[in-house]
Amino acid sequence: MARTASEVTDLLAVLWGRAQAAAPTGPTSPSQLRALLAIERREGGNMRALGEALGSTPPATSRLCDRLEAAGLVERRLSTASRREIELYLSRPGRALLDEIRAAQVREVSLILAAMEPEAAEALHQGLTAFRDAAAEAVDGGAYERDARSWLANPA
């Protein structure tokens, strides 16, 4: 099963690459996209937490945030709890970029799902929901906040 999941993630990476390239704002590097997704999951987190989430060194994380901020995708704010901490937030354009990419991802995956038998698609949905929740627990230590059904109904 783990091998099949790995093969699926490889195929999804190809689909995601198509979605990123098709985004109206243009392509985003994989490292920038991972950072935006990590910031979104930990809105208001600091650079150290982002570095840990990405498995990146502090200097590399800082340079990545510099590029994201220069592109207008991320905002750095002084922490209300500690003057020495900088909190990271997605900017409005950063959120819009993720929405565009997700909408393109949904379009790509919808084509695949449409080719599946309805029973298989429903079984996949149930399995992926369970997998998402378990993966979110492993990554975040908490359940994934987004309601998958409402998100899929309104991805943008």
Q: Topology, please?
A:
Elements: H1 2-22, H2 30-41, H3 47-54, H4 58-70, E1 74-78, E2 86-90, H5 92-114, H6 118-140, H7 148-153
Antiparallel strand pairs: 1-2
Describe this structure in words.
This protein is mainly α and 156 residues long. Helix content is 68%, strand content 6%. The protein contains 7 helices and 2 strands. It has helices at 2-22, 30-41, 47-54, 58-70, 92-114, 118-140, 148-153, and strands at 74-78, 86-90. It has a two-stranded antiparallel ribbon with strand order 1-2. Strand 1 (74-78) and strand 2 form a beta hairpin. Helix 1 (2-22) packs across helix 5. The two termini are 32 Å apart. Mean pLDDT is 84; it is low at 143-156.
Calculate Rg over CA atoms: 17 Å
| Sheet of most strands | 2 strands, antiparallel
Amino- and carboxy-terminal Cα gap: 32 Å
The whole-number mean of residue pLDDT values reads 84
Q: Beta fraction of the residues? A: 5-15%
What is the tally of beta strands?
A: 2
Main sheet: strand order: 1-2
Helical segment count: 7
Order of helices and strands: HHHHEEHHH
> Low-confidence segments, ≥5 residues, pLDDT <50?
143-156
In which range does the helix fraction lie? 55-70%
Assign an overall shape. globular
Q: What is the SS-derived class?
A: mainly alpha
